Structure formats: C-alpha cells, structure tokens
Amino acid sequence: MKKTVVGLLAHVDAGKTTLSEAILYGAGAIRRLGRVDDRDAFLDTFELERARGITIFSKQAVFSMGDTEVTLMDTPGHVDFSAEMERTLQILDYAVLVINGADGIQGHTETLWRLLKRYQIPAVLFVNKMDQAGTDKERLMAELKDRLDEGCVDFGGWQADGGEWNPGTDERESFAENLAVCDEAVLETYLETGEIGREEIIRMTAGRKLFPVFFGSALKMKGIESFLRGLFEIVRAPKGSSSFGAKIYKISRDSQGNRLTHLKVTGGVLCVKDALIGEEKVNQIRIYSGSKYETVQEA
C-alpha cells in the first residue's frame, strides 16, 4: 500500500483538532466524534491537553484513502509550542492549513505559510467555522489571494467525474480559468483545448503553484465529504527509494518510561534488530494512531 503523511496546521482556535476528528470520522477511522470541549478528542491524548483544550504535542492517526495509507499529523497551533510544530514539518508530504472563517487570516497563519514555503510543502486550505454569522466566502477568498498566494482557488462544490475535474455548478468556465492562470503551460493547453485534466491539478498542487481551498464547518460536519473527496483526488504518495532512509523528528517516552524515537521511513524497509543510530538497535517498531499503537516486525 502507498503511504503519505499529511499535517494539519493552524492558528490557535481555528478548529484544527475538531477538523482532525471530522476527517477521521468521515474516513471511517473512528466510530464517534470527540470534542475538545468534552475532553475526548481522539488526538488529545495527554491530560494537560484535555484540561487546557489545546494541542501541545504533535500526534498522529492512520486511515486509508483508496490504495493509500494516510498518516494524519495534528500539530500545535499555539505559538508557545511552535517548535514542536516546526519539527514535524520536515516529515510532511502535504499540509492542510486550517483558517478560522470568522476571524480570517491571523498573524501566525502568515508565519505558518512562510514555513510551508521554506520547506516547500504542498498545501491545501480548509476555511473552517463557515456556519458562524458574518462569514463571507468572497471576502475570505480575496484575503487568501492577497495575503497568501494568488494560486488559492476555491474548490468547493466541484468534484472529479470520469477522470476530469468538473463543476457541480454552472461556474465551470470561471473555475477553469482560475486554475489555468496558476501555470503557464496549463494556460496554453486550456486556451487550445478548453480543458484541464486531473493530472494537471495534481501536478500544480504538488509543485506549489495551486492551493485548493475548501470551505465548511468541522463541528457541524459541513463540507467534510467534499474536502475528503478533494484530498483523495489531489494527494499522491511520494516515490520512495529502494535503499533505507528515515527522518527522525522527535524523541519522547511512553507511560512506562521507554524511550521512543519518532521517525518517517522515506525509503527501503526498517526491521526489528536493525541498527538505527550507530550501534543502537531497534528493539520494537510501533505504529501509533492516537494513544493506541500496533507493533510490527518491519515498516
């Protein structure tokens, strides 16, 4: 099975952890929706996080999307824990930047955007809390284009059909034009044929020329289905090397005091008893999803 890592990033109070619940529930990875306010969110695994209602440590959950296994990384949104968030960036294949639709782009949102550019991480945007009074989709889209990138394009109400991206509304031409201007080669093809294929969208997103934008409410599960469908069509697993490679991004300890080395395997295979750092050997491989884990012989 192909594997990819997608990280959730946001300014504090944008509803990032609530979105992680909605994604996992919509993907069938959890059976019930937890809530930050109820202190039972799947990825708020530490008592301090539940008590304060914020994410302090980066955590992961695993779910399937077609033939791809997705590791979803929930990162801290509070600026006090930004170092924990930034360590996680080095292992991401894609990022989902969550924006509070009621407040718009915050200062820390722009900081996150600059970090995504520095690490060259393809990004999809989810504008949350659109159920709240006073939210204005057109104003928010203008703000995204002005303060983040002109390549931000509204993907709400659009779906893939027969291998091509087709609108769910009668605004096909406007959508296609917004896509086409993100890349000169795509624009030339569009002017000649009047069509933009799915592969062009995938390539533009991976190349950080296009930033698909989805709108909804994670708390009300509004827009989650189309968002997940969009991710399924856009996200592609990276090609790995046949030789072993890995990126270590965190060291921690479990509840029994055992030392844990958190890493992403970027190529080849890691097996129990392999030497990972110097002469230190791997004595157990765990794949975490929330607070639970599965032990495997190789990864």
Write a concise synopsis of the structure shown.
The chain has 299 residues and is an alpha/beta fold.
**Relative helix content:** 25-40%
Shape: globular
Distance between the amino and carboxyl termini: 12 Å
> What is the strand tally?
15
- Helix/strand/pairing category: alpha/beta
Count, helices: 9
Q: In what order do the strands lie side by side in the largest sheet?
A: 2-3-1-4-5-9-6
List the topology elements.
Layout: E1 2-10, H1 16-26, H2 47-52, E2 59-65, E3 68-74, H3 82-89, E4 94-100, H4 107-118, E5 123-128, H5 137-147, E6 152-154, E7 158-161, E8 164-167, H6 172-180, H7 184-193, H8 198-206, E9 211-215, H9 224-234, E10 245-253, E11 259-267, E12 275-277, E13 280-281, E14 285-289, E15 292-296
Parallel strand pairs: 1-3, 1-4, 4-5, 5-9, 6-9
Antiparallel strand pairs: 2-3, 7-8, 10-11, 12-13, 14-15
Helix pairs in contact: 6-7
Summarize the structure in words.
- It is built from 9 helices and 15 strands.
- It is α/β, with parallel strands linked by helices and 299 residues long.
- The chain folds into 2 domains: 2-234, P-loop containing nucleotide triphosphate hydrolases (Rossmann fold); 245-296, no CATH class.
- Strand 14 and strand 15 (292-296) form a beta hairpin.
- Helix 6 packs antiparallel against helix 7.
- The model has no long low-confidence stretch (mean pLDDT 86).
